[in-house]
Amino acid sequence: MYANILIQYKIKSLDHTFTYHIPDNLISDIDVGMKVYVPFGSSKINGIVLDIFDKYDGETKDIICIISKDLKLNKELLELGKYIKDKYLCTLISAYQTMLPSSLKVNNRKESYELRKTYIILNKEANIDEYINNNKRAKKQLEIIESLKDNKIEKKELSSSSLNILFKNNIVKEEYESYYRINKNNSIKDDYKLTDEQEKAYKTIKDTFNTNKIHLLHGITGSGKTEVYMHLCKDIIKEDKRVIILVPEISLTTQLINRFYDRYGNDVAIFHSELSDGEKYDEYKKIYNGEVHIVVGTRSAIFAPVNNLGLIIIDEEHTSSYKQENNPRYNAIDIAKWRCEYNNCPLVLGSATPTLESMARAQKGVYNLITMNKRVGDAKLPVITVINMQEEYRKRNMILSDDLKIAIDNRLKNKEQIMLLLNRRGYSTFVTCESCGYTYKCPHCDITLTYHKTSNNMRCHYCGYTVMFDGICPECKNKSINSFGLGTEKVENLVKELFPSARVVRMDRDTTTKKGSHEKIIKGIENLEYDIIIGTQMISKGLDFPRVTLVGIVNADESLNIPDFRSGENTYALLSQVSGRAGRANLQGEVIIQTFNPDNKTIINVKNNNYLSNYEYEMNIRKLLKYPPYYYLIGLKVISKDYDKASKEANKIINILKNNKEDNTIVLGPTTASQFKLNNLYRFQIIIKYKKDNKILNILKEIDYNYINDKDIYIEIDVDPIRF
Ligand code: ADP
Ligand code: ZN
User: Are residues 407 and 368 in the same domain?
Assistant: First the structure.
């Protein structure tokens, strides 16, 4: 017997299978999808078995051993890998690697992450009564024997000296039981009775179980989408099928996961980046063994090895975190569509602010549109005020307007909570010498350094380069260094100064690096340990705190000014999501938006809470500028240490593309990428806009392949990029 093995090798030209002989001792165990260890050249390497067959004429080597007998990629995931390779132009092995948690990745050597408990039991074959009679004085031993008569006892609970004697005399034996790191008690909470709107949404989706329908659930913030998901899960459990629920980020996951644990206890497996390798291994195994019906997790949970999939739900479908930003650059929504088709089950995309692409599909009837317009119970949408910061600047209010300060003060008096959003971490965004104009920049990337006051250093937010801040200009040696621009740290400082008795917490990437830190902050907010929460977009989505009644958006322009064709769409989503955090229960919410552009269309649409008006406005622009959803996009980057080489190759590539495309396909560039120099590499960019063009897709694969062995040039192709 022989097997074709896909080996774990980074080089694209080696991304195909090699044939190996299966030695007799492995034949009964080996199966397609398993991880094996094989000789390769002069070394040994891991690989995945892709197929097994009887006859082969060429010369082969023997497979050395099987690495994971009890965990393998199933048929569906093996197929899915081929789709990923094809759609995103990546290697097959990288597609499979992406599907596996790090503990199971093909290149991981560690044998097992399984945790086991050791128990002591009586040896049934021993003559226990005789032993008792002969050892009447050994009180401790007799006690142990007595206690083992009804049940097993964990080894560590028993005195080891007496136990050792019992072992020697073959009176007791060890028994092992594997256990999981995460263990939840069973459900404690009942379902809510659905509102009419929820009931309708739920019924519509339920009626399409066993079909491959895609639903867009457009429900305003607080309309109770999560509750609809939970009711659907109940039916999935009843039918003994499985459901995958994707959530955008870990900050969101904590609250949502707890809601699922409360309802479904041990029937839930979770998957997100804060789990340890061992925890991920355990959760993977629960899913693999079919021990849970519900999988909740971030992007990579879309690869959960469930069998009998009955439903996939993607919450907050508009978030960019469903797109992986490094190779393979897949979008979890595409993967979900593929899996739902494979399993003939429905997909639910939920959001208060769906992407233009999704809404356009819904309006065309490709997706089924379900709308929920009302908040649950008596909760009303917040009242939104827009503040013109130009006027505030004249009053020397550089960070917080008078209205926002007064509103904060009022909420503090009422013992209600306040959220302040600024989508920029750090203290100030650039540091400049006021005598000579010197500005600190990252020596590896072409961007200004951000000042962090807490740690008194300056950091590059791209590559992590860090220098201490000493206030002396490296150019003119004057002590006239000053920092400008606004980050969350500066807001925190000011807020603490203005409201000294308020309890303030900051939630951004800098305060949440430690494992469990998200959860701690969120618990703290839930338990009313904080009055004011300052944060980046991390606080904008999904979180549900009933006592938050005021949301202040410190600088709405921060997001509007990003040079990206999606900035209008993204700003609308960000602002209305964070507004949605206010007044979710019976307390009336209020939102204050500070901006230098009060007449901006997006801001006005947010104020009027008019998603559809914003949708139409943005769609018109997209149509004019030939952007998605009217055209598909591909971004291609030519990257090199050598500026001239990158530029030359980029020009060569663009000519090839222009000569091999359909007429209505547009090829733009090469231009310098928005992040032109990154980690000492120069990056040129080409953008392709197309409607239907197999020619160009094929030529892209060819171009990609042609540069495989080029050591100086790296080609990065991003299919359906989220940003450039
Ligand atoms: P969304 O996900 O649409 O923002 P949630 O599902 O978080 O909304 O619901 C908002 C709040 O309303 C939550 O606190 C939730 O527990 C509560 N809720 C949802 N549905 C119901 C219901 N049918 N009856 C009572 N409370 C509900
Ligand atoms: Zn840098």
Answer: no
